[in-house]
C-alpha cells in the first residue's frame, strides 16, 4: 500500500507555488484530506465489514488509488491534485482491512507489531524506490504512478495470502474475546462508556500522528535543515533501525497473558516514547547529536506510543472488558482525529518558508506534543485505574480463561 501512497513525497517540486502555497505542501495536504475523510468513513465501514469481503475490498481500493496516481500524471498542475485526493480517499481504509485479519488472537501484538514495522520500513523503502525512479529520468508528476506499478505483483500475491489466514480459534477467543461487526448504536455505546479514558488516548495519538506524519512527508526538508543532503539509501537505513526497535518493544507485549497488566504496560510504553522524544530534542539542541541519530531516535520515540495504540492499548482494552466490538472501530476513531489534526498543521507549516525554519517549527511542535501528552497520559492512567473495580470487572473472565 505504501508503494501507492508515499513515493511522491520524495520529490521536492521546487519552484511550484499556487494560491500562495508551495505545491508540495498543497499535494501532501490534499492527499491527507482524502485520507482523513476515508478514516471518518472507515469508522462505519471497517467496523461493519464482514471478514469474507476484506480481500476484494483491499484490491479494489488500491486499484482506485493507482488510477488516482495516473490522473496526477495526466492533468496539469494544480488541477492534478484531484488525483492525489482520490488516492488518499481510497487508501485510508486499507490498514483497517488488514488489521481485521490480525485482531483478537493470542499473537495479535506480535502480528500487529510486524505490520506496524512494515509500514515504518515501507515509508523509507518506498521513498528510496521513488527516488530511484526519479533518477531514471521519470518526471516528478509521473513518478508516483510508475512506482505504484512496481508494487502491483507483490500486492496481488500478499492479498491472496491474507485471504487464506484462518479466523481466531477457540483459545484465541477465550484469551482475547470474540470480535464482532458493530452497529452504530454499539459504536456509540462503547465510546460513551469509556469516554474520558479513550479521549485522552485519542488526544495523545492525535499529537503523535501529526509529528510522525510531518517527519514522514517532509523528511527531505528535515534532513536538509539538519545539514544533511539525503540520498536514496538514508531513508531506508534510518527507518529500518526504527522498525527493528519498535517491533521488539511492542511485540513483546504478546508474552503478557494478563490483559489488564498488558494494557497498563502499553500505556507505560507510551510514556517511554515521550521521554525518548524529549531527550532526543534536548541533546540535539545542545549540539551533541548528529542528524542521523537524531532522526532515528525521534522516530523511535514517536513510534513507541503510535504503535502501542495500534498493537496493544485498544486490543487489550477489548480483551479485558469483553465488550462487543472490534479493533478497527477504535483505531479509526483515533486515526480520523489524528489526520484531522495533521491537515491543520500542513497549512500552518507553510508559514515557515525555509528548511531551517521548518526544522524549528517541527522541534517546537515536538516539545508541545510531549508536554500535552504527558498530562493526557496521566489522566488516562488514573481513569482506567479507577474503572478497575467497576467497568473492567470482566477481567475475571480472562483469569478463568487463562487457567484452561
From TrEMBL:
* InterPro entries recorded: DUF5690 (IPR043745), MFS_trans_sf (IPR036259)
What residues form the membrane-spanning segments? Answer: 20-43, 55-75, 81-102, 109-130, 142-162, 194-214, 234-256, 263-282, 294-314, 326-347, 359-381
What are the record keywords, sorted?
Membrane, Transmembrane, Transmembrane helix
Does the keyword Membrane belong to this entry?
yes
List the Pfam families hit by this protein, alphabetically: DUF5690 (PF18943)
Q: Which residues form a coiled coil?
A: none
Please report the name of this protein according to its UniProt entry: MFS transporter
Which species does the entry assign this protein to? Blastopirellula marina
Phylogenetic lineage? Bacteria, Pseudomonadati, Planctomycetota, Planctomycetia, Pirellulales
Amino acid at each position: 500500500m505504501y508503494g501507492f501512497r508515499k513515493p511522491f513525497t520524495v520529490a521536492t517540486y521546487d519552484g511550484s507555488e499556487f494560491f500562495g502555497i508551495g505545491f508540495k505542501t498543497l499535494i501532501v495536504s490534499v492527499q491527507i484530506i482524502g485520507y482523513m475523510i476515508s478514516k471518518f468513513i472507515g469508522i462505519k465501514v471497517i467496523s461493519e465489514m464482514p471478514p469474507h469481503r476484506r480481500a476484494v475490498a483491499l484490491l479494489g481500493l488500491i486499484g482506485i488509488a493507482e488510477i488516482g496516481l495516473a490522473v496526477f500524471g495526466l492533468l496539469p498542475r494544480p488541477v492534478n491534485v484531484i488525483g492525489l485526493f482520490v488516492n488518499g480517499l481510497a487508501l485510508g481504509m486499507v490498514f483497517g482491512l488488514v488489521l481485521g485479519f490480525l485482531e483478537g488472537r493470542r499473537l495479535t501484538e506480535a502480528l500487529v507489531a510486524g505490520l506496524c514495522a512494515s509500514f515504518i520500513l515501507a515509508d523509507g523503502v518506498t521513498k528510496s524506490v521513488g527516488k530511484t525512479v526519479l533518477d531514471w529520468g521519470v518526471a516528478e508528476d509521473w513518478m508516483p504512478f510508475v512506482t505504484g506499478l512496481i508494487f502491483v505483483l507483490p500486492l496481488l500475491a500478499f492479498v491472496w495470502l491474507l485471504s487464506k489466514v484462518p479466523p481466531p480459534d477457540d483459545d484465541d477467543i477465550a484469551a482475547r474475546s470474540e470480535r464482532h461487526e458493530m452497529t452504530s448504536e454499539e459504536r456509540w455505546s462503547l465510546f460513551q462508556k469509556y469516554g474520558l479514558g479513550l479521549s485522552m488516548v485519542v488526544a495523545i495519538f492525535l499529537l503523535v500522528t501529526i509529528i510522525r506524519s510531518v517527519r514522514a512527508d517532509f523528511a527531505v526538508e528535515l534532513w536538509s535543515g539538519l545539514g544533511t543532503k539525503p540520498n536514496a539509501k538514508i531513508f531506508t537505513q534510518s527507518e529500518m533501525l526504527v522498525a527493528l526497535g519498535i517491533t521488539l518493544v511492542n511485540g513483546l507485549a504478546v508474552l503478557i497473558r494478563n490483559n489488564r497488566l498488558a494494557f497498563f504496560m502499553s500505556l507505560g510504553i507510551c510514556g517511554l516514547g515521550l521521554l525518548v522524544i524529549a531527550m532526543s530534542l534536548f541533546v540535539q539542541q545542545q549540539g551533541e547529536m548528529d542528524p542521523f541519530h537524531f532522526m532515528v531516535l525521534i522516530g523511535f520515540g514517536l513510534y513507541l506510543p503510535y504503535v502501542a495504540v495500534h498493537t496493544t492499548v485498544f486490543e487489550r482494552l477489548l480483551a479485558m472488558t469483553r465488550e462487543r466490538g472490534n479493533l478497527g472501530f477504535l483505531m479509526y476513531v483515533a486515526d480520523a482525529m489524528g489526520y484531522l489534526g495533521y491537515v491543520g498543521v500542513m497549512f500552518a507549516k507553510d508559514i515557515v518558508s525555509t528548511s531551517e525554519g521548518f526544522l524549528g517549527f517541527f522541534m517546537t511542535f515536538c516539545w508541545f506534543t510531549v508536554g500535552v501528552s504527558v498530562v493526557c497520559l496521566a489522566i488516562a492512567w488514573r481513569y482506567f485505574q479507577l474503572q478497575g473495580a467497576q467497568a473492567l470487572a470482566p477481567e475475571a473472565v480472562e483469569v478463568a480463561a487463562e487457567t484452561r
